[in-house]
Amino acid sequence: MFRVVYSSVEVEAFDSGLLKRLLINSRLRNTEMGITGMLIYDLGVFLQMLEGDQAAVQATFRRIERDPRHRNVSVLWQDADAQHRICGEWSMGFSDASGASQMLKGFLAVEGGLRAAVLDRSNAIKILESYSSAA
């Protein structure tokens, strides 16, 4: 199994409606491709983990990289030998600080924010693992 974790910054502000559409579309695509993952959004910063078949995850990530709604896409971690899914059966778990997470079942609130300035591999993994285990 392959896993990638990346961060990026929005180009224009995502309101709750845009976040909801992004999440629904991501869940549909990920389910079709056998990908699980988690997306955290906070104050214009995205942190996402994708996991599954390497070809499927890499194709999805290439599509994400080309998406004009965000910039500064930075890969924080890749693992081609992942032994288990951190995100369980989530086609796309989601957490945010904007309030959109209150609209859909199963969302978590971001506590303390992502703090993009210190969002390195170690911090990203800790954040994603803590949210995936809380769901």
Describe what this molecule looks like in 3D:
With 135 residues, this protein is an alpha/beta fold. The chain has a single domain, classed as Alpha-Beta Plaits (2-Layer Sandwich). 33% of the residues lie in helices and 30% in strands. The longest helix is centred in the first third of the chain and has 18 residues, at 16-33. The chain is globular, with a radius of gyration of 13 Å. The model is unreliable at 100-110 (pLDDT under 50).
Descriptors for this entry?
single chain; 135 residues; alpha/beta; Alpha-Beta Plaits; 6-stranded mixed beta sheet; 3 helices; 33% helix; 30% strand
Radius of gyration: 13 Å
> In sequence order, what are the helices and strands, one letter per element?
EHEEHEEEH
Described by its quaternary structure, the protein is single chain
Q: Quickly count the helices.
A: 3
CATH architecture: 2-Layer Sandwich
Spatial order of the strands forming the largest sheet: 4-1-3-2-5-6
What class would the helix/strand composition place it in?
Answer: alpha/beta
CATH topology: Alpha-Beta Plaits
Proportion of strand residues = 25-35%
Percent of residues in helical segments? Answer: 25-40%
Count all strands and give the number: 6
Separation of the first and last Cα atoms: 22 Å
CATH class: Alpha Beta
Q: What is the domain total for the residues?
A: 1
Low-confidence segments: 100-110
